[in-house]
Design a protein that fits this description.
With 259 residues, the protein is α/β, with parallel strands linked by helices. It has 6 helices and 8 strands; from the N terminus they run E-E-H-E-E-H-E-E-H-E-H-E-H-H. The protein starts with a strand and ends in a 17-residue tail after the last helix.
């Protein structure tokens, strides 16, 4: 359990009309991005966050995905993720000598030599952040972990009104210790295509051979009826009549009465 005091009286309506905090659940080796995957908590509530771990494995992008061991210049101690890569690419854009020539306060790797940005660089940082799109430089990760959050809330009981409007009680726990694995793979591969084509080709070939023989027999009968004129038929009949097979006489055996 974590108790958070938000100090509502210190909020400025010029910046935002919302009161509360935003919580992001992430892997310890990744950079949190609460503005993308955060859960908003309001004061005066008991907030319960039930977490379920999901492991994503994408088999369709093995040729262009990135492993966890890819190093990042400004975040060498973090695992690779698309969000971390985008932030790192943004920092590298800031550090360009032709841009701002500085970077926010981080601990970059030894091969990065750049100064920390100051107040004088704020205008340059805002300008570069609006115009730079790092998504083209960040291919997806081959596999990564995400956490599905199921929030629930209840009213917070306190003795005073001040404590109720300033206090947030946060409970974070695992809904289950099981890890759900989501595999993304092709449902119809090139091997399936070859197998289906082979089966269809075999069926088509067998049917074609039988049909071809039947067509040949039909053509032969048609040609025979067209070429064999009545005169030819008469000659063939005369030849058949002239051909006689020799007659062979078979003597019957004598009966037993002659003995």
């Amino acid at each position: 359990m974590v108790n958070l005091i938000v100090s509502v009286s210190e909020y400025s309506r010029l910046s935002s009309s919302n009161v509360g905090v935003k919580v992001s659940v992430h892997d310890r080796n990744s950079i949190p991005v609460p503005h993308q995957v955060g859960v908003t908590l309001s004061p005066g509530k008991n907030s319960y966050l039930a977490i379920e771990t999901v492991k994503h494995i994408d088999k369709t992008r093995e040729s262009n995905c990135v492993r966890h061991d890819r190093s990042l210049d400004f975040f060498p101690g973090y695992s690779y993720a698309v969000s971390t890569c985008r932030i790192d690419a943004e920092y590298r854009n800031y550090a360009d000598v032709n841009k701002c020539g500085c970077s926010p306060e981080v601990n970059p790797s030894s091969n990065v030599n750049t100064r920390n940005c100051t107040i004088a660089d704020i205008c340059c940082l805002f300008q570069e952040r609006r115009t730079f799109d790092p998504s083209v430089n960040c291919p997806p990760s081959c596999e990564y972990l995400s956490y599905d959050i199921q929030p629930s809330y209840s009213d917070l009981y306190t003795d005073g009104e001040s404590g109720r409007i300033n206090l947030i009680s946060l409970y974070v726990y695992f809904d289950t210790m099981l890890v759900t694995q989501l595999f993304t793979d092709y449902s119809y591969t090139f091997a399936n295509l070859l197998a289906d084509m082979g089966g269809l080709l075999g069926l088509f070939t067998g049917a074609s051979v039988i049909s071809l023989l039947e067509v040949c027999i039909l053509l032969f009968d048609v040609l025979k009826s067209l070429l064999l004129t009545p005169r030819v038929n008469k000659v063939v009949a005369e030849l058949e009549n002239k051909i006689h097979l020799p007659e062979v006489e078979i003597e019957e055996p004598e009966s037993d009465d002659s003995l």
